[in-house]
């Protein structure tokens, strides 16, 4: 698949934003994080900023961005439409939680309820994003048991690392919170490696023979349907060299997992402000690594429509 940067950035930014928003809703609502104005203002602002930047970026891949609002009407059958509805609906409890926790400095009661609803909405939205790809049967690399959990794991991972950077910046970091970041990053790394191994060993059952029902011989085209690249080949037939794929996988592991793990391990032995600086660096490096991971997610996927073109 063609890895358009608008969609790559969208899935990365909204995943991190909703992950951070869910954690703030739960931890802030249950008074695990104190209701400090600047902490809440910057944290909620960062979460909303990432989400809005991602949503706006996603319109860049549309032929007619001004008609994006029509996607909301197809929620009965479209995961893309459900994602839009879920993302907008989540803003309602998130706004109430932000008002109570940030501006009123309250927690407990209706603020806790709003925080929990915010976390539930964020999780549902990330699930709908994952299902956009997991539901596509023509793309075997996406239509697997790894896709949806991967979206949730990476959202929690990037959100927790962002939250750690935020808390360390206000000298509120804790060993428990750091340990959670390390565990989630390790888990995300393991899940990504397992996904790659699954995809590399994947044997796609659909061939030109099975598609035509002529399984007794080898089906080949006498004349190609097009003499040059068309829209389908540009969008669905993107190909990446094996050597480039291997190198980008190494870069992904280094930026998204190895370096953040090393930096966070060092943070546990430091005090403010060095702990804050390294935590922010870990979050920035991991975000860059996840952009590479998302690019590969699209670039390595193969759509069965390319069989029609002899690929």
Descriptive report:
- The structure is a single chain.
- It contains 10 helices and no strands.
- It has a single domain (5-309), classed as Formate dehydrogenase/DMSO reductase fold, CATH 1.20.1630.
- By secondary structure, it is an all-alpha fold.
- Helices cover 67% and strands 0% of the residues.
Mean pLDDT: 86
Largest sheet: none
CATH class: Mainly Alpha
Any idea what the radius of gyration is? 22 Å
Order of helices and strands: HHHHHHHHHH
Low-confidence stretches: none
| Broad shape | globular
CATH architecture: Up-down Bundle
Stated plainly, the CATH topology is called Formate dehydrogenase/DMSO reductase fold
Percent of residues in β-strands: under 5%
Q: Which SSEs are present, and which pair or pack?
A:
Elements: H1 5-29, H2 37-58, H3 79-103, H4 110-134, H5 147-169, H6 175-200, H7 208-212, H8 231-236, H9 242-267, H10 274-299
Q: Quick gist of this model?
A:
The protein is mainly α. It contains 10 helices and no strands.
Features:
311 residues; Formate dehydrogenase/DMSO reductase fold; mainly alpha
């Amino acid at each position: 698949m063609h890895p358009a940067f608008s969609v790559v950035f969208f899935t990365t930014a909204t995943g991190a934003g909703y992950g951070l928003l869910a954690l703030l809703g739960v931890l802030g609502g249950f008074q695990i994080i104190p209701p400090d104005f600047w902490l809440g203002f910057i944290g909620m602002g960062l979460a909303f900023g990432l989400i809005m930047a991602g949503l706006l970026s996603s319109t860049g891949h549309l032929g007619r961005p001004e008609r994006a609002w029509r996607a909301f009407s197809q929620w009965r059958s479209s995961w893309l439409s459900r994602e839009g509805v879920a993302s907008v609906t989540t803003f309602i409890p998130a706004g109430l939680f932000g008002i109570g926790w940030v501006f009123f400095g309250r927690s407990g009661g209706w603020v806790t309820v709003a925080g929990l609803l915010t976390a539930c909405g964020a999780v549902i939205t990330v699930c709908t994003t994952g299902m956009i790809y997991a539901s596509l049967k023509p793309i075997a690399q996406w239509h697997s048991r790894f896709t949806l959990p991967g979206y949730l794991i990476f959202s929690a991972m990037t959100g927790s690392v962002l939250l750690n950077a935020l808390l360390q910046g206000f000298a509120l970091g804790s060993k428990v919170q750091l340990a959670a970041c390390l565990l989630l990053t390790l888990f995300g790394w393991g899940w990504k490696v397992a996904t790659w191994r699954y995809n590399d060993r994947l044997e796609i059952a659909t061939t030109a023979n099975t598609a035509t029902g002529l399984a007794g011989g080898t089906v080949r085209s006498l004349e190609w349907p097009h003499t040059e690249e068309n829209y389908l080949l540009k969008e669905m037939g993107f190909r990446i060299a094996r050597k480039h794929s291997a190198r980008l996988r190494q870069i992904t592991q280094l930026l998204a997992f190895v370096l953040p793990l090393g930096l966070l391990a060092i943070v546990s032995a430091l005090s403010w402000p060095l702990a804050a600086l390294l935590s922010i660096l870990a979050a920035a490096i991991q975000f860059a690594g996840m952009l590479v991971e998302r690019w590969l997610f699209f670039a390595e996927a193969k759509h069965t429509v390319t069989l029609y073109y002899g690929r």
